[in-house]
Amino acid sequence: MKSKLLLTVLLLFTSFAFSQSFDVNGTVLDGAGLSLPGVNVKVKNSSKSTTTDFDGSFKLSGVSTGTTIVLSYIGYRTQEVVVSGPKITVKMSDDTKSLEEVVVIGYGSQKKREVTGAVSVVDSKTLDILKPARIEQALQGTMSGVNVTTQSGAPGAPLDIRIRGIATNGENRPTTIIDGYVGDLGLLNPNDIETITVLKDAQAAIYGTIGANGIILVTTKMGKKNTKTKVSLNSYTGFQYTSRKLPMLNATEYALLLNESYANGGKALPYPNVSGLGNGTDWQDEVFKDGVPIISNDLTISGGGEKIAYSISGSHLDQEGIVGGDKSGFLRNTARLGLTADLSDKFKLKTNVIYTYFTRNTLNENGLGSVLFNALNVPATLTPYDANGDFTLVPNTTGLGNEIINPLAQIANTYNDYNYKKLNGNFGLDYKIFKGFVLSSSIGFNTSNSESKTFGKQISYGGKVFDVQRSSVTQGAVNDNNYSFDLFGTYNTKIADNHNIVGTLGTTIFKEWGNGLFATGFDVPNNSWDFADISLTKGISETLTNSSYVYDQRRLSYFGRVQYDYKGKYLLSAMLRRDSSTKFGPGNKVGYFPSFTGGWVISDEGFFGESKAISFLKLRASYGTLGNDQIPNYGYLGLLTGEATYVFDGALVNGIATGQVPNPDLKWEEARKFDVGLDMKFLNDKLFVVADYFIDTRNDLLIPNIPVSGITGTGAPGASAPTLNAGSVRNSGFEFSIDYKEKFSDSFSMSVGYNVTFLKNEVLEVNNGTGFIEGGNFGVGQPAPSRMEVGKPLGYFYGYKTDGIFQNQAEVDAHPSQLALGANAAPGDLRYVDSNGDGVIDTKDKANIGDPIPDATMGFNVQLNYKNLDFALYTFASVGNDMVRNYERTLSDANRLDYVLDRWTGQGTSNSTPRVTTGATANTVFSDYYVEDASYFRIQNIQLGYTLSPNISQKAGITKLRIYTGVNNLYTFTKYKGFDPGASNGAPIGGGIDYGFYPIPRTYLLGLNINF
Asked: Could you tell me how many helices (H) and strands (E) the chain has, helices first?
């Protein structure tokens, strides 16, 4: 009896010992051994769960031995761990199977494997490496189908984004949606961004009339629930240098060449004695500054509790210009608050508010008479300062014209200021009505105010066009506002386990309004910037000195989308959006924009088998119609917005006149987009390939200010030609991207990416009565060099073809006369091609001599990680884009690039560069002599970083400490002679004409990342 009782007691104690529960304390690390916060930790087959805190630590109470814990985190493999004791450490592995990642697609999201449209994504890791001052820079070379061009390298200068080519002579910029509302990509702090998603095809039709140029979806960083407060500090200091100088003639070379030019023209030599001139003044060295600072600081505080998550950030960027220093400086401050809160089991609140303030100063650039234009054209024989220490005056002679001035004096006498304040954000509320159905509402808003001031100092440059006879100050104030209200429901359901359906139905209201006021005052006290304010001016002008405007625009939209998949293998999506806009007349306000996408995951088919080489294969296609209404307001109406002067009783009286000629038949610009693509994964998911073929046909192009025959009076101040639906353009091409990721060991990993886009652009129709539209400028008084014409690329260069240099008089006599171009030809002059074969060289011989649109763009990127070291290299290339060399003034006494040293000086000496002479020639008319291949390869970014071992940094309470050094815009390989082969003035007709682009600086960076 006693033995049985003892056995029973022992069994009870043994059972208790095995079933005893305890607290498990764990730590989760990433592949590099660093703490990983925000990891979801869940007891398998139980509701018990938690998340790792900032230190990567977690605690689970009441866990028994043998329990399985599941750990999951985006970007890492889901892992299961069996509990064997009260303490565990888990090292997460990178998830190369990224097909389960969620991609934002507009009014919803999809798993990457289910996406049926052409979508590209840039994440925060890439932004951390590139360190762009403006977000747009991060899109160049990182994704296929997206091309970013600079209008200027000056601090704060805007950039142009083109998705799959240039489709219209109107507005080409894609629309940016920030957390659900329309926003401005260029004003965001790069460190606030989690992902940037670009919708390139018909999938953007869910946005209807604002989607034709593509959609950029920005998701900002938010805090994570159940995490300790995390403080992140990112700071860098940089020093900027000019990335390029042009090889100009020094003083001796200039004098010798000028003597030759005057001698060839039968004139006396301007420099009878060139000895002692030496190198003279290098005006580029005088204008460009070295070691110009750029400073950036960014602080983010984030975290969350059981039901609330938050992210608070602030940033400061201060950048001076490599030309003019603070006279072309840029300063930007931002503050942001992001908050999500579970108000109940059914209600979820999300808000994101951003405040931006920036100031910018600018110089005259990218045009005739700009600072760099003058630096290139002022002779090296002149000194910056005269004997009295004053700025040297450039002689006002025929050989130097009346617009070339001392660039240092121009910088010193440039005074302007611009400041901008913007508050934008959104407030959203999700209501879970019942299982599978969520009703979402969101209010987005933008409100901004800007003030500008420009002071014209009374000054004389020696009789030049820049002389100011009377001092003045012009001030402006602009107020812009918009808001949007979105209300949509999303329903998810599954039928018979295999059929998955997601339906979205909603409406959007958008309103945009604002006003501007500008005024000019004369006779500024003391002729000084310190007193440059209209309130202090007393001068009176006989001309109109004040102007203003007001606008109000609205859209009402309805949209719907149905997504269906069968076993995740057959994927279908259909979208329809109805937009009505106040930009169009009563008969054309409403537009309908349908689209369809589909996909087939071939690798899920039984016949595909267990392929070891190909682990994933998806075929997808899309077709749809999108719209564009980005034109000036009230284009269909006649408004009194012009200036006019009338004579009443013998006196001049200022009045108003009609502005833009109205066009009541204005309607939507329509884009029909077709895309077929393949997504593939190879080598155990290490190699990811995406390929797309696309056709984008844009009809009823909305083109402002089209000259139309029979309409007069458009030359009056404030008046302009009408906006018309005047053409059709097609972009077609092929995109290909390949990414390879390999983890060789716990210490060494590598990631390599390459993307390329081939593009063909063709104008299909021009409906303005003349069959072509002109644009751009070349030289002084010459016809427009760019055209939009059927059968040609949009904005192609229209001029004369050349066929070398006349070597002797016999060749001149045997060639058709070139007198119609302005002068008889002589040996040493350019020989123009008789394109139409009529025996005369005249305007009828003009032809296509170049195309500013590249045939192909590509990016190649490498990232390496070895233990605590990391290395990154980002590059970009553009092939086949031409550019017009228009920064050289064709005046006889202007300085020249040193390629003229290889000029023609006699028979057989040159067949590419004509002779120099002060006599009359036709060498300066617009021809392919001035058009160059501007293809280039650019090393955009190199960065090397070191992360301190967490064993050391965590002793100081620092979770992560990383220092890095890098170079932005290291080097550009190109044959183009100008400053920047990748720059453009942004105009579809007239782009690619180089007036002396401000070069992008080369920047050396030293930075620090600290997480607490």
From this structure: 8, 51
Q: Is residue 39 part of a domain?
A: yes
Tally of CA atoms within 13 A in the half-sphere of 146 that contains its CB: 29
Q: For position 15, what pLDDT does the model report?
A: 42
Cα–Cα distance for residue pair 739/82, rounded to 1 Å: 35
pLDDT (0 to 100) of residue 18: 43
Q: Write the CB contacts of 298 (distance below 8 Å, at least 6 apart in sequence).
A: 189, 191, 233, 234, 235, 313, 314, 315, 316
What is the percent of the chain with per-residue pLDDT over 70, rounded to a whole number? Answer: 95
d(CA 655, CA 109): 55
What gap in Å lies between CA 111 and CA 101, rounded to an integer?
A: 6
Look up the pTM and report it. 0.88
Q: Cα separation of 292 and 1002, whole Å? A: 10
Other CB atoms within 10 Å distance of the CB of residue 74: 12
CA–CA distance, 666 with 494 (Å, rounded to integer): 45
List pLDDT tens digits, range 920-972: 999 999 999 999 999 999 999 999 999 998 888 877 888 889 999 999 999 99
Rounded Cα gap, residues 134 and 120, in angstroms = 19
Of 790, 793, 795, 803, the C-alpha closest to 884 is 795
In a domain, 50, yes or no: yes
The CA-based angle 725-726-731, given to 5 degrees, is: 100
Identify the helix (H) or strand (E) that includes residue 81: strand 79-82
Q: How many domains, the chain?
A: 1
Distances 674 to 197, 580, 629, 733 between C-alpha atoms, Å: 19, 24, 21, 11
Element of type H or E holding 412: helix 407-412
Asked if residue 661 is part of any domain, the answer here is: no
- The answer to whether position 516 is within a domain reads no
pLDDT digits (tens, 9 = 90+) for 416-432: 999 999 999 999 999 99
DSSP string over 452-518: EEEEE--B-SSS-TT-BSS-EEEEEEEEEEEEEEEEEEEEEEEETTTEEEEEEEEEEEEEEEEEEEE
- Please write the tens of the pLDDT for every residue from 575-589: 999 999 998 888 889
Residue 96 predicted with pLDDT over 50: no
Q: What are phi and psi of 191, to 5 degrees?
A: -75, -5
Distance, in Å, from the CA atom of 560 to the CA atom of 574, rounded to the nearest integer, reads 8
Torsion angle defined by CA atoms of residues 398, 403, 408 and 413, in that order, rounded to the nearest 10 degrees: 130
What is each CA distance from 237 to 59, 240, 242, 815, 820, in whole angstroms?
A: 40, 10, 17, 61, 58
Sign of torsion, CA 981 985 988 991? negative
Q: What is the CATH number of the domain that holds 86?
A: 2.60.40.1120
Q: How many Å apart are CA 227 and CA 244, to the nearest integer?
A: 48
Q: Which domain holds residue 40?
A: 21-91
CA distances from 650 to 326, 541, 716, 749, 922 (A): 50, 18, 21, 84, 48
| Lowest-confidence segment of 204-208, 269-273, 683-687 by average pLDDT | 683-687
